[in-house]
Amino acid sequence: MNFNHLSGRKLSAALLLFIIAGIFAPIHQLAALAKSPVTITVAMAAGYHVDALKAILKYWEKEHPDIKVRIMAFGYHDLYEKIVIDMREGRGSYDVIEIDDPWMPEFCAAGWLTDIDELAKKAGITINYSDFVDTALWVGRCPYKTGHQYALPECGNVELMAYRKDLFKKYGLPCPPKTWSEVLKAAEVISRNEPGIYGTVMRGLRGNPIVSNFLPVFWAFGARIIDEKGVPRVNSAEAVEALKMWLALAKYSPPGMATFSSDQVKAYLYEGTAAIATEVWPGWIGKLDDPKVSKVVGKVDICVPPGEKTHPSPMIGVWLFGIPHSSRHKIEALKFIVFATSARMQKIKALETGYPPTRKSVYLDPEVVKKYRWYPVQLKALMTSRPRPRVPVWAEIESVLGLYLSKALVGEMSPEEALNAANAEILEILKEAGIYKGG
Amino acid sequence: MSFRRREKLISYFFLLPSLAIFLLLTIYPMAETVRLSFYRYYYIARRVYFVGFKNYTWLMKNDLFIAAIVNTLKFDIMATSLQFLLGLALALIFNTEFRLRKVFLPLVVLPMLIPPVAVCSIWKLMLDYRFGVINDVLDSVGLPRLDWLGDPNLAMLSIVIVDTWQYTPFVFLVLLAGLQSIPRELYEAAMVDGAGKVARFKNVTLPLLRPFIMVVILLRVIDTFKIFTKPALITGGGPGDATETLTLYFYKEAFKFFKLGIGSAAAVIMTIIVGVMSIIYLLKVRM
């Protein structure tokens, strides 16, 4: 039977049909899109950021049915990579991007963000800035603090300290501790008298965790990363003192601390097996009074990380909403970010998901404070917070510092050796970036 | 046109699509990477300038990069050897018939099917000093708890253990296939000739398994050389630089700091190392 010849023809015809259909299908899709309402794409960090935004989406849909919002969530590094490539190539895939504050200097220098003040004027939208916390607004300005607003702060992250108020009271320790020396003394007293409870629990994982944990101590001793002339000062006498204090605190942390990240700190804190978590972030402490997950309900108090030689410097780590210059729906994007950062929406986000606000009124709202008793302290911390150096090469500096802090932690290098080595490498980075101006 | 020539032209014509894809997606990126390695290329700041071999000399003088090379080679050797020995042992066991073999076989293969990110999360918890199940087991038999991830001397070993757990099944499957391809008659003939278990293994199994062993070792050597996810997620390259690997290093330079020149140079050095290793290996085993 001449089977092959006939069905071969039929098969080829079917294949040809599929190919043609495949070519024309997307064209039909594009045509359909052109008639649909405007859709803005929001690129943001996965996790609780998305949960918070989803909590207010229904209100947005009611007020702006003509502007659809598409959320794309990425892991931290992925997010950075994707938005950098998108903005650098001018692709316009994203209309709203979530920006971690250390990325702002880089994006500002590259001119990738839209001037919000100018855009608001053009669109006839007024933004009331007075309710926002100043320090959070400053990191969204290009240049820092003094320039125009290029991003609106939407997640009021700031570094705090958590400690066991009940244990502090039991041993007559200053409550809250006002200096790192007091914290060290408290850690020593508690760990000596309470078997099974570690004095401190800290993040030691190389990279961003260890640097974030170290900086409040570093700054409290009067040390700074870079001075006005762009000269790195990571190995100053104050810095060495600070590192020695930090290492002393680390001695009271559980074994394995050298790779601790937020998961481990939260575990020890919630279990009640650590007396002081020297560095906590708002996203970690939301459930401290929830008996379903916490063994220390009502026993933990939150305070501003203390000072030592100088005033406290809680580290700011806010996230902001910005509009890439390549976005094709800038005005819709602006409407969205103004909506998402409004007092009403921030209150809903805080109440439903514990998302830290960036507006003073929300922090002091009685309903919100009832649920999160430490919000007044958190507001104080945010208002007196300190940003990481506003240089475009912060990621590299953090990586170098993270490496040498880790080496000092495991005893591979002495504090002086580690900070000297870090300083030398940071100097090279600053020279290469043209930030170093001699001195 | 002669029939011969037409045939030839038609075959070249059919090769064109594959050739085009190969040139576009393999040769061009490789050539670009080599070209970029001679420049300082700050992608975000849009600063590009020629530096010749400076990137390479900078890398070779960089402590962290050298540590990455040493760690990667150490990891490569430890992981491949361990995976080979365990895989071979498992394959020998599963080459025989025993009760519940059908139940255990899929269980042995399971680790390989779990996404690497999930594997990292699970093991990070299991290796935790206080909460980890590994230390709990050690505790229960009276052994001291170990700081698997925080001790610089143990951290690399921990990564080896996790990688071995995940990819020994691969070695096992390849070697099992090899064992099952050996005809039973050869064993019977050997037994008739009076060969004991060890002699049978040495003279029948090993020589016939050789091609499979060579392939699986080469594949694991190349694959473990690229180790990235596990040190990135479990130890962050630390403590110190104990688990810094080449891919981790070059990923940071290229995609975290967007220094494409240095990243490209690191990638080229990586490729040269693994290329040299592979060529020596292939020449030595005359594949």
Describe this structure in words.
The complex is a heterodimer of chains A (439) and B (287). Chain A is an alpha/beta fold. Helices cover 50% and strands 12% of the residues of chain A. Chain A is built from 19 helices and 11 strands. In chain A, the strands form 3 sheets. Chain A has a 5-stranded mixed β-sheet. Chain A has a 4-stranded mixed β-sheet with strand order 8-9-7-10. Chain A starts with a helix and ends in a 7-residue tail after the last helix. In chain A, 46% of the residues are buried. Chain B is mostly helical and 287 residues long. In chain B, strands 1-2 form a two-stranded antiparallel sheet. Chains A and B meet through helix 3, helix 4 and helix 18 of A and helix 11 of B.
Quick structural overview:
Chain A has helices at 3-35, 48-63, 76-88, 104-110, 116-123, 134-138, 165-170, 180-193, 208-220, 237-250, 262-271, 282-285, 330-340, 343-353, 360-364, 366-371, 375-383, 394-409, 415-432; strands spanning 38-45, 67-74, 96-100, 141-142, 148-149, 151-155, 160-164, 198-201, 274-280, 300-303, 319-322. With 439 residues, chain A is an alpha/beta fold.
Fold blueprint:
The complex is a heterodimer of chains A (439) and B (287).
Chain A: H1 3-35, E1 38-45, H2 48-63, E2 67-74, H3 76-88, E3 96-100, H4 104-110, H5 116-123, H6 134-138, E4 141-142, E5 148-149, E6 151-155, E7 160-164, H7 165-170, H8 180-193, E8 198-201, H9 208-220, H10 237-250, H11 262-271, E9 274-280, H12 282-285, E10 300-303, E11 319-322, H13 330-340, H14 343-353, H15 360-364, H16 366-371, H17 375-383, H18 394-409, H19 415-432
Parallel strand pairs in A: 1-2, 1-3, 8-9
Antiparallel strand pairs in A: 3-11, 4-5, 6-11, 7-9, 7-10
Helix pairs in contact in A: 2-14, 9-10, 9-18, 18-19
Chain B: H1 3-36, E1 39-42, E2 47-50, H2 54-61, H3 63-94, H4 101-113, H5 116-126, H6 133-140, H7 152-180, H8 184-192, H9 197-225, H10 229-235, H11 246-256, H12 260-285
Antiparallel strand pairs in B: 1-2
Helix pairs in contact in B: 1-12, 3-7, 3-9, 3-11, 4-7, 5-10, 7-9, 7-10, 9-12, 11-12
